[in-house]
Amino acid sequence: MWGLIPVFDCSQLLLLCPSQCKPSVLSIPTTDARVDSPQPTMSDQAFVTLATNDNYAKGAMVLGQSLRNHNTTRKLVVLLGPHVAEPCRDALHSIFDEVIMVNVMDSGDAANLALMKRPDLGVTITKLHCWTLVQYSKCVFMDADTLVLSNIDELFEREELSAAPDPGWPDCFNSGVFVFRPSNETHKQLLTFCAEKGSFDGGDQGVLNSYFNTWATADISKHLPFIYNLSSIAIYSYLPAFKQYGHDAKVVHFLGKVKPWNYSYDSQRGEVRGHSASPDPCHMHPDYLLQWWQLYATSVLPLLQKAYGDAPFSTGVMDQSSPYRGSWMHFLLSHLMCLGAALPSSSFKLLKTRINFTRT
Ligand SMILES: [Mn+2]
Question: Which of 9, 11, 236, 249 has the maximal Cβ count within 10 Å?
Answer without folding.
Answer: 249
